[in-house]
Amino acid sequence: MTAFFALTTSLLWGLADFGGGLLTRRAPALTVVVVSQGLAAVVLGVIVVATGGWSEAGPRLWFAFAAGLVGPVALFSFYKALALGPMGVVSPLATLSVAIPVGVGLFLGERPGLLQVAGIAVAVTGVVLAGGPQLRGAPVQRRTILLTLVSAAGFGTVFALITEASTTVTGLFLALFVQRLTSVVTGGGALWLSVRRGAPALPRGGLARSALPALGFVGLADVAANGTYSIAAQHGPVTVAAVLASLYPVVTALAARGFLSERLRAIQAAGAGLALVGTLLLATG
After folding, report:
1. How many domains does the chain have?
2. Domain extent for 261
3. Using CB atoms within 10 A of its CB, is residue 75 exposed (0-12), middle (13-18) or buried (19+)?
4. Which of 1, 42, 50, 144: disulfide with 85, CB 3.0–4.6 Å?
């Protein structure tokens, strides 16, 4: 069960990152974050009302609130790093996010077996290679590296926080709603400040209505990924769930290959293969 939900998480996050990357070519990153998260919050609000999720309100929602504060910072830093530096540097570095939930799992007493340790090492190596690491070329700005590390720390923190935000399915809906509502308020405030400083909130000609379904998909896929990761981490070792969920760069690379006809470099193909081997080791270990 853990492997299934964690792999579903990587699929959803990979598709959300792919969609978000395409959208940021047409609109400012903050706008993409706020609108996509806002659409997801509306859908979650309807689900919470329909399922009576308000009855699950309790102290655990503070974890969801904290995740909602950290999430927009991580997303914006990631998109900004992609805009400033080569994806071949940013994408592999961002996978360092897995270190935080794995570290939490080890701190809480989880001790993966030898086969699982091998699977973790192989899978993480595969994910880094699948990101297409840039080994040569112009030096990367320190700001790009810093933003990437901030996004990695943020994503890893959200991993850890959302796991603690609920213990039931209806409670999970409420936790995700609180997280997204907080994200919208936080991101909206940042967007307002950027507009005050002269940055555009919308692309020239405004935001096309045809972009709304894509924005909704990105927001809902991100929400669903948080939910499936929470379930995976609650029903199995966090160390395994976190590593399997971190395979999303492989999904993003394959989506670019399928939808944009981008050719996978040899190192990316090798990384995807290693990630698959690592997944098998983790699932059977």
Report:
1. 1
2. 2-284
3. buried
4. 144
